[in-house]
Amino acid sequence: MHAVDRRPGSVSLDGTWRFQLLPAPDAEPGPQWDEAPVPGCWTMHDPRDLPHYTNVQMPFPHHPPLVPEANPTGVYEREFEVPAQWAGRRTVLHVGAAESVLIAEIDGAPVGIGKDSHLASEFDITAAVRPGGRHTLRLTVVKWSDASHIEDQDQWWHGGITRSVSLHATDVLYLDDVAVRAGHDGELRVDCRVRGPLDGGWSVSGELEGYGELVQDTAHDASNRELGRVSAFLGEARLSAIVSGVRPWSAESPSLYGLTVRLHRGDGSVADTSYQRIGFRTVEIRGRDLLVNGDRVLIRGVNRHDFHPLTGRVVTEPDMRADLVTMKRFGFNAVRTSHYPNDPVLLDLADELGLYVVDEADIESHDHAHEIADDPRYLPAFVERVSRMALRDKNHPSVIVWSLGNESDYGAHHDAAAAWVRRHDPTRPVQYEGAAKTDWSSTGIASDIVCPMYASLGEITAHARSGEQTKPLILCEYSHAMGNSNGTLADHWAEIETTPGLQGGFIWEFRDHGILQRTADGRPAGPATAPGAYANGITAPGYRWAYGGDFGDTPNDGVFCADGMVFPDRTPKPAMYEHRELAAPVRLSYDPASGTATVHNRQYVRDLAWLRAEWLIGGEESGNRTVPAELPDVPPGGSAPIALPAELPEFPRLPGHPGLPGHPELPAEGGELWLTLRVTTADDQSWAPAGTEICTPSVRLRERTAAWPPPAAGGGAVETDADGLLVHPLLTAPPVLGLWRAPTDNDLLGGAAARWRDWGLDALVRKPVSVTRDGEGRVTAVAEYPTAVGTVVHEQVFTARADGSLLVEETATLPEALHDVARVGSVLETAAGLDTMEWYGPGPWESYPDRCAGGAVARHRAPVDELFTPYLRPQESGGRSGVRSFTLTGADGSGLAVRLDAPRQVSVTRHRAADLAAAAHHDELTPLDRSVVHIDAAHRGLGTASCGPDTLPPYLVAPGTHRWSWTVRPV
Ligand code: GAL
Ligand code: MG
């Protein structure tokens, strides 16, 4: 393994190959050949071996290192020609990655074998080929081997050749490796390893773009152990330079320099050349801080797998670019290559776009972690997988940390691998979650970073405050994004930003692994699927997103593979907008006493010149208005006042405030007033064209001051049925009490849903108690809702009002035993045809009480069909938190208007909770023609209990008495 990039001069062997799928590696290929794409997973196109999803458990019961006899084996074959001008050169076959064991043969003769499904294998085939000749290449890929037990990552199992195959040639005298160290102070050192006939004489030269020639460094001789030995006898040479005025590389400002290294023969002619883009940057750990170029940068990371809904594990350059561009646009500055090295292209892209990378070795022995971590038979594999990754990726400035793998317990192999990588590359820290699992204060050797997964906020802050912390704490996984999730991200970041020792983490994970499946035959739709089979996270009729079990795969772990911040087609989920706002480069604050607003630059190295902004004025009564804004000059980490818009229609007439200077005539209204700075890119960035929205920080200028309920004289009699259920022309189902929601994945896996079912909340029955009518036509309806642990009493008072509205005042009293319900509120159904919702509150994104930092408070409008979020397994979704008022109207603009006593959780969808809960996939749901409306006095936060902490106590729904009221009127 080496860091010399041979792609530019290589001959691609990608394309359609002959293919046979055998039942086992010792079966003989027959005369009949199919075709298969290379790269490609046969599991995505061959019905005899379909994708299989497991998390921890292995798909077969055999203990390591054994595997089943039934062992799908793909035989790939094609002809290739060796260019005649390669005569006298060294010819190399490069296989980017194959899953899992790779056996290479040319013209029937073996040339080598490789393991490690996520690193390349190279075979020197000079002796097996003839320049100008035509040969047959056979690559046999065996699915299961001893190595499968250390590739037990939580993902689909596939088989195939998953990265590109190519040929290249070098001179017999060649650069075997080039190792670059470039610090942010401009110190550059390039170590070259040369192979071939060395006795004919050789030398290396180097050239740095924009700087000039590098000098061959002769100062360090074999006796200088500290600087490392350089031995010409062994083919070693070193170039060095102190580059002045260097622009350091960072995720914010990823400056790259082209470095060319040439290998010369004794006569000075060039035998080999290597070109790479390098970055000057320094990573170090000082105390409990991880520093990049001397800055303690917060790590806003996300875990990424290689995944594509049509091709499985095969991802192209555009796929990888789109992944990283999406991350950048949503405020991520770091990616962990969970749980294996990615295609080198991904690191090129991270270098170019600016993302810090935790580069992880392909080691996860989850199911047999304890047996394997100290089993000497697996020692070489551990050390090789770590060392080969480091050898390949060491020159990428984006890589700031080496990770020894994932979920493999902690054993001697980890210490061995850590020792190797530390010695080989002292310029980067090493991390391994398992090494610091039980004792974060331990100084155990295999992890320089305490990188727990799913630790609670309480635990990590307690550690940071304990006085015992010795290492930076950066969560390798947190905020499990399964279904409707990522509650309390804002709480996390509030602590991380203010607690020394806490430095961020990596959300689990980037993308849902839903494979596009044809419902007609249950097969993967596959690489040849025509466009239009999915869009905006939703599959077209005839398709669905498959998860574990959908291909008849057993055992399986169901929908646990759908835990991404984006849908399988990379459509961002609402949680992405939450993250974007929390990671925003610009923040806004407002001081009501002085009436001044301040802009804060939250970046480490950039000023605000790459951004522009406009004001969005969001008035509860006056609606939205957009006016220009001028961002002040603010240095990184600094703050500066920003002028408020001159056009404020309802400038706060707060006590003691003079009002908008120059506009004393403006009327004060009773509604709220919010000001949002809509920040966009001023010009093209490598990851966002000019005009891309970056963040929408908001401040409240005025609270609602109008009286509640709005004063109104009697408007006549209210109509109810004999049981006290409201009869209203705009409603097809009257408001009744709701205590339940279609369980989210967090509710199910965290246990809340089972409790709710035991209590009977999913099948509440209303028992009318009394209906009374007063002299003015006001109706008071009292009902009881029995549950397994006590009865909930619900009272509704309906008052008709002169302005044509109906006031609904509700009280629900929950017994103490109902200490943690999903919601307390009203659920009703509207008349059909009211297809557009407009609301005042945060938006436009879906939000919940513990995930509501991502939206600007303003007036928002959306088709009802678009309010719903199609999480892969149907569940509670589409909620909007902090809604103050909303309308639902039809094409002619008529419909109903609801005003709430206080900001409330509201959802408007086409689905009843029970229907959502009964469905496993979206194609099983039939949307109603009307809307199901929930108005909640209280709604349980989302939490992350599918893997990690449950909803935090402040976001739980307490027992006792809840009161809420609202008005509804026709519009
Ligand atoms: C972690 C693991 C990940 C994934 C996640 C749950 O324990 O490292 O690979 O399984 O949990 O989705
Ligand atoms: Mg695992």
TrEMBL record:
Recite the UniProt keywords alphabetically: Glycosidase, Hydrolase
- What does the record give as EC number? 3.2.1.23
Domain Beta galactosidase small chain/: residue ranges: 712-969
Matching InterPro entries, A to Z? B-gal_small/dom_5 (IPR004199), Bact_Beta-galactosidase (IPR050347), Beta-gal/glucu_dom_sf (IPR036156), Gal_mutarotase_sf_dom (IPR011013), Galactose-bd-like_sf (IPR008979), GH (IPR017853), GH-type_carb-bd (IPR014718), Glyco_hydro_2 (IPR006101)
| SUPFAM superfamilies on file | (Trans)glycosidases (SSF51445), beta-Galactosidase/glucuronidase domain (SSF49303), Galactose mutarotase-like (SSF74650), Galactose-binding domain-like (SSF49785)
Enzyme superclass (EC): hydrolase
Q: Which domain of life is it from?
A: Bacteria
Q: Which reaction does it catalyse?
A: Hydrolysis of terminal non-reducing beta-D-galactose residues in beta-D-galactosides
Tell me the protein family, please. Belongs to the glycosyl hydrolase 2 family.
Q: This chain belongs to which protein, by name?
A: Beta-galactosidase
